[in-house]
């Protein structure tokens, strides 16, 4: 494909020309997304060692990529939001003035593509024909990024045609640079719908359609256009009566979104006819429809899932999805060139993710943030509704994190404002998905701490605004699959058994399931949930279904302090809700 003439493409052509003049590539290639293009790129990557062919018998069409060992996760400390007014970025983001941000990045991009080809990737986030979808163009010098964007987005000619029709798109400029951690920045310019990313080839740092566009830039855009861009999976839950409810759920990275999105119901439920379908596993864009309900699309077309822990037992649908046409990044290898990771439950590693002989004493076979990239269509539970331009109506929104203590298995918000507070107060232990210490408790409101492209105080106001008397808003819940006992063991079996909790939620939506009111929200008693066939210790029963007043008093004091960090911009309605509950906890 070559650059097209035509007035609405002028701004695209001019930008591409400007970038080429700055970065000085040897060649410019416009990606059309065709199979022939993909084959040529893949062959070139195989030839230069960027991709290693996996066992064609067991994993046809699949590849291993080893990233630079210093480039294995998102880098939150090097991620910036550049707004003209510092307060618009908020205490939740690193900030730089837009002019400084551009100057810093353009100095890095200067001549950086010499000797390389520059790829121009037009892409659409969401179904090509959906009014909820948005387009972007990523310019990159990484063929690995092109191959991943091809799986993760609707990339190529149809996206370019939509850009030509609409005239506006998000501009993303990316170069792997020298992969030097000291020359690495992920910079966002939400007011200009622009992203500049330099020095990393990994995941959310480099596949700009994902976190940079679909969350940081889109959240900013969504605020001004009256919709929501969220870090949420979307699943369809079909009951034995054949009714399907759609649930959107926010959890921080590497807290089981992919597993929940692809859940297989426990035996007894399967017999009764329960079914879970997958619309998305990471990002959800939603907007009120004419009936006032929130309609959601998954802006992505593929999964960039965490490999370790994925097994026939934990996530059979994910494992089935990645048997072919998959790019694995930073996993280990077996003697016969099959991908391997900790928790796979079969096979044995001989080579680790750095390409060295596997030595359990030295390092794990797979990096803890190793990933698979695969088309969503390969998932056995893939929902046809993912292609529906209208989106799916959301019945319940779920927030959750890794909380080893205090937080029970599930509770329900009394109303929307309370639900927004529950989301705003979310906390979780950090994971390997971002560089930095793992297992440290931090507040991660709505799992958007690393991804909200503007001030959290304004973000919460935006959420509160949806309660306008016209909208038919979903019920809001909080879950904790990660509660631990005195011995450090997980008290809830999780995985497929989580369906029992989802069933209760739908029962609450339909008005058929019971709950007890407490200051923190409505909790099920153990008899409100179907626990047939689940063995829970007395400790588990107490901790999963109990309400610990003293601990919650402390938690609410800490939530109050957290909201104060945002100063007067924090909506009074949210502070009022926190104070009301804190007072009830004292009674
Ligand atoms: O690296 S990504 O941001 O794409 C994945 C994640 O952390 O959720
Ligand atoms: Mn994510």
UniProtKB/TrEMBL annotation:
Residues binding GTP, per UniProt: 254-259, 371, 402, 495-498
Annotated Phosphoenolpyruvate carboxykinase GTP-utilising N-terminal domain residues: 14-223
Pathway(s) where this gene product acts: Carbohydrate biosynthesis; gluconeogenesis
Domain Phosphoenolpyruvate carboxykinase C-terminal P-loop: 227-581
Catalytic residues identified in the record: 255
GO terms of molecular function: GTP binding; kinase activity; manganese ion binding; phosphoenolpyruvate carboxykinase (GTP) activity
Major subcellular site: cytoplasm
GO CC terms: cytosol
Catalytic activity: oxaloacetate + GTP = phosphoenolpyruvate + GDP + CO2
Cofactor annotation: Mn(2+)
Entry binding sites for substrate: 74, 202-204, 253, 369-371
Cofactor binding, per record: Binds 1 Mn(2+) ion per subunit.
NCBIfam families linked: PRK04210.1
Family: Belongs to the phosphoenolpyruvate carboxykinase [GTP] family.
Protein name: Phosphoenolpyruvate carboxykinase [GTP]
Organism: Novilysobacter ciconiae
Upper classification of the organism: Bacteria, Pseudomonadati, Pseudomonadota, Gammaproteobacteria, Lysobacterales
Underlying gene: pckG
């Amino acid at each position: 494909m070559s650059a097209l003439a035509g007035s609405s493409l002028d701004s695209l052509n001019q930008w591409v020309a400007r970038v080429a003049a700055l970065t000085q590539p040897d060649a410019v290639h416009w990606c059309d997304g065709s199979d022939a293009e993909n084959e040529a790129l893949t062959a070139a990557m195989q030839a230069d060692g960027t991709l290693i062919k996996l066992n064609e018998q067991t994993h046809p069409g699949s590849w291993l990529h080893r990233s630079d060992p210093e480039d294995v996760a998102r880098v939150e400390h090097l991620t910036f939001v550049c707004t003209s007014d510092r307060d618009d970025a908020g205490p939740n983001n690193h900030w730089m003035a837009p002019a400084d941000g551009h100057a810093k990045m353009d100095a890095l991009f200067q001549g950086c593509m010499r000797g390389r080809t520059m790829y121009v990737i037009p892409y659409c986030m969401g179904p090509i024909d959906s009014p909820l979808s948005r387009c972007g163009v990523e310019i990159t010098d990484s063929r690995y990024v092109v191959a991943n964007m091809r799986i993760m987005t609707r990339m190529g000619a149809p996206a370019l045609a939509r850009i030509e029709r609409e005239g506006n798109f998000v501009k993303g400029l990316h170069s792997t640079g020298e992969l030097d951690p000291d020359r690495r920045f992920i910079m966002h310019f939400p007011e200009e719908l622009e992203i500049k990313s330099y020095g990393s080839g990994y995941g959310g740092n480099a596949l700009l359609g994902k976190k940079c566009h679909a969350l940081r830039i889109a959240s900013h855009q969504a605020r001004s256009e009256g919709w929501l861009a969220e870090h949420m999976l979307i699943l369809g839950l079909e009951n034995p009566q054949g009714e399907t409810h759609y649930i959107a759920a926010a959890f921080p990275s590497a807290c089981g979104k992919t597993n929940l999105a692809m859940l297989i119901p426990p035996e007894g439920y399967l017999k009764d006819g329960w079914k879970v379908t997958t619309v998305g596993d990471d990002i959800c864009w939603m907007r009120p429809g004419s009936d006032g309900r929130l309609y959601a699309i998954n802006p992505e077309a593929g999964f960039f899932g965490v490999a370790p822990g994925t097994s026939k037992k934990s996530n059979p649908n994910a494992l089935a999805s990645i048997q072919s046409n998959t790019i694995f990044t930073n996993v280990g290898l077996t003697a016969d060139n099959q991908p391997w990771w900790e928790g796979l439950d079969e096979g044995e590693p001989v080579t680790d993710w750095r390409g060295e002989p596997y030595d359990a004493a030295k390092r794990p076979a797979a990096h803890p943030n190793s990933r698979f990239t695969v088309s969503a269509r390969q998932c056995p539970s893939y929902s046809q509704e993912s292609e529906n331009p209208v989106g799916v109506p959301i019945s319940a929104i779920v927030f959750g994190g890794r909380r080893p203590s205090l937080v029970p298995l599930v509770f329900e918000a009394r109303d929307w404002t309370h639900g927004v507070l529950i989301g705003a107060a979310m906390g979780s232990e950090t994971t390997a998905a971002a560089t930095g210490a793992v297992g440290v408790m931090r507040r991660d409101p709505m799992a958007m701490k690393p991804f909200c492209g503007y001030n959290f105080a304004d973000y919460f106001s935006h959420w509160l605004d949806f309660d306008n008397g016209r909208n038919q808003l979903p019920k809001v819940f909080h879950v904790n699959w990660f509660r631990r006992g005195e011995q450090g063991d997980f008290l809830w079996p999780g995985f497929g058994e989580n369906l029992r909790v989802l069933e209760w939620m739908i029962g609450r939506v339909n008005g058929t399931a019971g709950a007890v009111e407490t200051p923190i929200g409505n909790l099920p008693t153990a008899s409100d949930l179907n626990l047939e066939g689940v063995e829970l210790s007395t400790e588990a029963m107490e901790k999963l279904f109990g309400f610990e007043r003293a601990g919650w008093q402390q938690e609410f004091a800490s939530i109050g302090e957290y909201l104060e960090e945002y100063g007067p911009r924090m909506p009074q309605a949210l502070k009022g809700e926190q104070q009301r509950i804190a007072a009830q906890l004292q009674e």
